[in-house]
TrEMBL record:
One Pfam family here: Ribosomal_L4
Keywords: Ribonucleoprotein, Ribosomal protein, RNA-binding, rRNA-binding
GO cellular component: ribonucleoprotein complex; ribosome
Entries under PANTHER family matching the protein: 50S RIBOSOMAL PROTEIN L4 (PTHR10746), LARGE RIBOSOMAL SUBUNIT PROTEIN UL4M (PTHR10746:SF6)
Top-level division of the source organism's lineage: Bacteria
Complex and partners: Part of the 50S ribosomal subunit.
InterPro entries attached to this UniProt entry: Ribosomal_uL4, Ribosomal_uL4-like, Ribosomal_uL4_dom_sf
GO biological process terms on file: translation
Protein name: Large ribosomal subunit protein uL4
Higher taxonomy: Bacteria, Pseudomonadati, Bacteroidota, Flavobacteriia, Flavobacteriales
Disordered: annotated span: 45-77
Family note: Belongs to the universal ribosomal protein uL4 family.
One of the record's GO molecular function terms: rRNA binding
Length: 209
């Protein structure tokens, strides 16, 4: 698959690059995508939720009424979950939601995500670029030139593009990552995936192992 290379003003440079079919042209594996996205979202969860159970509630432990003769159910501590202000039954406890996936499955999921975006013509290849200083305004101008100012976008740039990354941090619809920072969720969540020309080789070498 050949894709035209654009500059940051959105103009065609007249050059084309060949995308590897092993990375950008495979048959997508839906289950691998599901598992990788599930793991990513699970890793975002802090797992710090906690509610107090009856043993953790502050309150008297005296028996609040006699055992028999009241016509109602037996009752002991006021901290019982059946009473207002009592402990919670089987409440949430702190836990770790993360789980393990093997590298081959994660690699397959990411290739599947890139292949879906390539098939839908949502991949854009641009010349390498950087800013002299971090400026959000300059990054916004790039988005407008590429007609991405109203869309969600993922920029995959080289590690030397730190100023571009810093310029994009305040924009909620754009995300800048390196070739090694690609994940399935971000690729599929983007309306357009913009890849710097020099990072293509890194992406293909990382995912074609």
């Amino acid at each position: 698959m050949k894709v035209a290379v654009l500059d940051i003003t959105g103009k065609d440079t007249g050059r084309k690059v060949e995308l590897s079919n092993e990375v950008f042209g495979i048959e997508p594996n839906d289950h691998a995508i599901y598992l990788d996205v599930k793991q990513y979202l699970a890793n975002q969860r802090q797992g710090t939720h906690k509610s107090k159970e009856r043993g953790e509630i502050a309150g008297s432990t005296r028996k609040i009424k006699k055992q028999k003769g009241t016509g109602t159910a037996r009752a002991g501590s006021i901290k019982s979950p059946v009473f207002r202000g009592g402990g919670r039954i089987f409440g949430p406890r702190p836990r770790n939601y993360s789980f393990k996936l093997n590298k081959n499955l994660k690699r397959l999921a990411r290739k599947s995500a890139l292949s879906i975006q390539a098939k839908d013509s949502n991949l854009v290849v641009v010349e390498d670029f950087n800013f002299e200083t971090p400026k959000t305004k300059e990054f916004v101008n790039v988005l407008k030139a590429l007609e991405l100012d109203t869309k969600k976008s993922l920029f995959v740039l080289g590690t030397e593009s730190k100023n571009v990354y810093l310029s994009s941090r305040n924009l909620k619809n754009s995300k800048v990552v390196s070739a090694t920072g690609i994940n399935t969720y971000n690729v599929l969540n983007a309306g357009k995936v913009v890849i710097a020309e020099s990072t293509l080789e890194g992406i293909e070498s990382n995912l074609s192992k």
